[in-house]
Design brief:
The chain is α+β, with helices and mostly antiparallel strands. It has helices at about 35-45, 65-75, 80-85, 120-135, 170-175, 175-185, 220-245, 250-265, 270-285, 295-305, 305-315, 320-335; strands spanning about 10-20, 55-60, 90-95, 100-105, 110-115, 140-145, 145-150, 160-165, 190, 205-210.
């Protein structure tokens, strides 16, 4: 979220995730509570005793509050499934949260590396190193014919999922976003909302990821995803922004400045409305129509006004109405500093 990565005006972040299971143990979905606890203990002992331990922070899901689990979800370091489920589950995080190892989510182990902007190849170098280190102490379930064995058949093979978070407000304004959806479907890609599977897009943010992991190498999957998907979508969004500036400048600038006015003066604002308005502000900054706010500040506001973060900042539990009031106050305060 720090806006430091390549193509950061459109590519908010990128992620590579690997699904792995431990040989000799039941898949998580078929394991009873005792077996799940055994897997957790086994992986924890191996991971936290290895070379990576000095860089990791181990968090047992049963030892943190529901609010803390939701905060980790809002920060995209764990999935909603891990946050909302019970039993023997955990996550090991690097101190900067760019590396996460979810234990007993859908698979025994899910590794992910996050980075700002489009840095998928760099992500792969890092996650491949981590995967190799773990294979030194963990035997992963592997088939010579099918590759890595996973709980979901669509992950069998390399077990890799490659995804980017894209900000596509211009395509949405021009009514062209459905073309992107159709093209993605034809290319066997998945488009999801901010928090992944089962969530709807908000704030013109879309997660785009591969679905096929079998029959290609990790490098082929990443290169094709960048070349055939990410780079063309980024170019379409750039062209859409130029078209809006040329043909619909008054309408575009009105939406951007109206969003600034509402965010700067509203006394109550929902999370959904805040994301919608911040999307226009972000677009205005990228188009240099707004010059007194940094993109990084908008990204910070977006994260810190999510429900769990907002309650943590307030130091107390807030109902929906109180959150809307606190959110508006927080946004007014942050914008007034610029």
């Amino acid at each position: 979220m720090d806006d430091s990565g390549p193509l950061g005006d459109i590519v908010i972040s990128c992620r590579i995730r690997l699904a792995r299971n431990i040989a000799g143990f039941q898949f998580f979905s078929h394991a009873d509570a005792e077996q799940q606890a055994e897997v957790l203990s086994f992986i924890r002992d191996k991971v936290m005793a290895g070379e990576l331990k000095k860089d990791l922070w181990y968090i047992d899901m049963s030892e943190i509050s529901a609010l803390e689990r939701e905060m980790l979800t809002e920060r995209h370091v764990i999935s909603k499934q891990l946050a909302q489920s019970h039993g023997a589950r955990a996550v090991a995080l690097s101190h900067d949260e760019s590396l996460a190892m979810m234990i007993n989510e859908e698979d025994h182990l899910r590794l992910q590396v996050l980075a700002s902007g489009l840095q998928l190849r760099e992500n792969y170098v890092r996650i491949n190193r981590v995967d190799t280190l773990l294979e030194g102490s963990l035997e992963f379930a592997f088939s010579p014919d099918y590759g890595y064995l996973t709980a979901c058949p669509t992950n069998v093979g390399t077990g890799i999922r490659v995804s980017v978070m894209l900000h596509l407000p211009a395509l949405k304004l021009l009514g062209q976003i459905d073309k992107v959806f159709r093209a993605a479907k034809d290319m066997h890609l998945a488009i999801r909302g901010l928090y992944g599977e089962g969530t709807e897009p908000a704030g013109d943010l879309y997660q785009l990821s591969n679905q096929i992991t079998l029959g290609k190498t990790e490098e082929q999957i990443i290169d094709e995803f960048i070349r055939r998907t990410v780079e063309p979508v980024v170019e379409y969004e750039r062209l859409a922004r130029k078209k809006l500036l040329k043909d619909r400048f008054t309408v575009l600038s009105d939406k951007i400045y109206r969003a600034m006015g509402l965010l700067g003066h509203a006394r109550m604002i929902s999370s959904e409305e805040a994301m919608h308005l911040l999307s226009f502000v972000r677009l205005g900054i990228n188009l240099e129509l707004i010059k007194n706010i940094r993109l990084r500040d908008v990204n910070d506001i977006f994260l810190l006004t999510q429900p769990a973060h907002l309650q943590a900042l307030s130091g107390k539990s807030l109902d929906a109405g109180a959150r809307d009031e606190a959110r508006a106050e927080f946004i007014r305060d942050r914008l007034s500093r610029n």
